[in-house]
User: Fold this.
Amino acid sequence: MALPPDEVRHVARLARLALTDDEVAELAPQLSRILAYAEHVGEVAADDVEPTTHPFAPADVTRPDERRPSLSRDDVLAAAPQVEDHRFAVPRIVSQEG
Assistant:
């Protein structure tokens, strides 16, 4: 199935690609082969195969929450570039006007 240049240009427009005439001529046979392959894949007798989203069953990869000791507030704030009232001091990014 030969893909006409107008169809290649249409697909390029949909993909927001600017193609030269030389690029259209080069891509037309490549896109034709891709479409032929897609048709071939569609012909596979898979009526007895149930549709899936993954080839393997999903597994739960999360771990249970466990309380563990963490750094003290003083240790964390000691590593901060600026501290104000026992909190991280950061530059204001939103004005208070309005």
The beta strands are 83-84, 87-88. The chain has three helices and two strands. The mean pLDDT is 88.
